[in-house]
Amino acid sequence: MRDRLRMLSREGGEAPQVPFRSELHDERVAALLGVALGICFCTCFLTGLLSHLIQQPPGWFHWPAHPAWGYRVTQGVHVATGTAAIPLLLAKLWVVVPKFFEVPPVRNVAHAVERVSLLPLVGGALFMLFSGISNLARYRPWGFNFTVGHYWVAWITIGGLIIHIGAKINVTRRAVGSTRWTATLGAEGEQQARPATATAGAVGIEPAGRGGLSRRGFIGSVVAASGVVTVTTIGQTVRPLGVLNVLGPRQPDVGPQGFPVNKTAGGAGVAGEITDAKLVDYRLTVTGKVRHELSLSLDDLRAMPQHESQTAIACVEGWSAVARWRGIRVADLLAMAGATDGTTVKVESIQTGGIYRASILEHGPARDAATLLALEVNGAPLHADHGRPLRLIGPNRPGVQQTKWVHRVIVL
Ligand SMILES: Nc1nc2c(c(=O)[nH]1)N[C@H]1C(S)=C(S)[C@@H](COP(=O)(O)O)O[C@H]1N2
Ligand SMILES: [Mo]
User: What is the number of the ligand 1 atom nearest to the C-alpha of 314?
Assistant: First the structure.
């Protein structure tokens, strides 16, 4: 036992004094879980950063309209890797718990820095994963803006992760590269010599110490748990896995007109503005840097050339659904208004409040043939909750930018 604990803290310190009896508190188990977590976290961070850049683009950043599936895939990967990381993180924390009781707690400056960096790393990681899951379950008991909190804590967490990787890279290399488990098998040193059983390549022959789970069995279970939570949520965006989607809050084919609704007309406070009676007076206006301002009724819009596109709504919350849209091209509207080349366009909703009441179309996407102001979806006029009478739908855009209940286009 003492040997095992000494192994776990063998970067030079004393063995911890609190007895942790399970052989799973093992340096190599910790290292393997660490590598898996590192891959999940870095992928999740990069895809999250991309999503942030798309939604709040700095001047140098331009997100194209193609490939049409781009955002759907990157955001699906973001939510999937975040979900997969949860069992890995909990297991890793449990495995390394003896390290938190190490004596002395601090050995030197480098060690102190490494230990202090655990606070943003562990705290940040727990915050990121649980706020993310809670947000996509639409349970938001906190008092801060999710997007802002999730974004800034991501940087703090990644900072902690970089320091942690720097501090642990050698230990991890050694532990992962070795074919043996680091800590000795068995209880209290009684089974020091057990040559064949500790070979990583030999599957299934490792005995479980004290009748508990073996290290290999433990890693297998954690990876399986991680796989199960991922497979049972990813069906909200990967159609063939839809039947397995028991944990994901959305089914891609359930909702009015065959796909989910994010914000309903009632929830957005526009239900009273899009009744049949009100729509008689509906006008889509095109203003701003144009040669001719336009004011078009629904009949005017229906008289324009109609185009179709198969485009996905890809929500930041990790669900996505493809639908068949029909309506007018934004490009046609801009040409009709005589908008100068190189301009950016703002598309505004009837909705008066809310952060998603308007969205920006940069020059390229605004002129893309698949960027539509849709009047119909899946063969029928838009349902009130899908943006009746007119909504923006463009390829490779986050759901938040597919503005519903559109009534004004401003050329900037
Ligand atoms: N005006 C307006 N448009 C909006 C929203 C909104 O809150 N207000 N929500 C957006 C979000 S987050 C998504 S995912 C899509 C979902 O479209 P759907 O409800 O038709 O599926 O609409 C987008 N368009
Ligand atoms: Mo969304």
Answer: 14
